[in-house]
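User: Hey, my collaborator sent me this sequence without any context and asked if I could get a structure. I don't really work with proteins. Can you help?
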Amino acid sequence: MSTSALCELALALGLTLGGHCVAPPAPVPAGGLPPDDPSAYALPEPPPPPPPPAPEPVVMPPVVIEKVVRVAAPAPAPVVVQPPPPPPPPDPMETALTALWMAAAGGAPHALRPVVTSPPPPPPVMPVAPEMAALDLAAPVRADYGGPRRTSSQPVDNTRIITADRYITGILETGINSQVGGDDTGTVVVQTARDVYGYHGRKVLMPKGSRLICDYQAPEDMGSSRLAITCQRVLIAGHRAEIRDLDSLLSDVQGRAGTSGEVDHRFWERYGTAFLLTGISMGVRFGNTLTLSGGDDDSAASQSMETTSSELSNRLGEITASVLEQTLDLAPIITIPQGTRIQIRPATDWYIAAAEPPS
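Assistant: No problem. I've predicted the 3D structure and written it out in structure-token form, which is a compact way to encode the shape of the chain:
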């Protein structure tokens, strides 16, 4: 068998016989390119979608059956009314004394007077006089204290009294600006920050949160730096009792009378306008002096300018004096911020009446 026949047989069987037998190349078409392979352009098919999950079985909530046993209420026990106790027997001594009193007043006849027999009284025992000591005439006689005095009272129940030695701590609810003008008074509300106890310290007479209505008046003097605040009315928290006409002065946290704050002495409002007018007057006089020194003093124009500047300077002086007279009476402005802690000292004792029970 020839070699070509053996190669054809081996290729038919899928053998190459050690690389000696090679399949002949595919015939090339006339254009010089092999035929297209459609499988090279085909896209791979996407994998099939996963199957949907199986629906969860519907689980019904367990049914709980409770057995309710209704028990009838027990019948009320019969109310047994106890008879009133018998009156005590009369006291013979009280009966006898009553009869004697009625007989003395003429209210009972002599025949109905009970006869009270009592044992005869024992004979009186005469006391024996002690031996008298000899009188020492040389001993000094002590005289009673003769100076001015004040006698103490009996013990007083002060459990419901806020005495005048107490300090009530409070906080300003509203800020204060003393620029009210004239004789008008301002009003401020103070709220207590602590419980106030009685004299013995066992009963809360004014709970914290009580409110005091106080008045203040604008300062009048130039050097005033403290504001006098006077409380006139208190509204006690809890039972809402009220005390009026207190006339108690407020003080700062150190107990000093009055309340301090930021003070505005209004310096520029007092003297700023006067300083400005004085400067203008001095400038006019200085300009007039320079004008006269540079020209002829005997000329009519110079005399007229001198007269005009002198008149203007005098007018400015009068205006300055008038402004100073008006602004010197300006009082300082005292500003106290909200939340300032203060102390209230009662001018008199405050008696807190007990609350009446509801009817």
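In plain terms: Residues 108-116 have pLDDT under 50 and may be disordered. You can pass these tokens on to your collaborator as they are.
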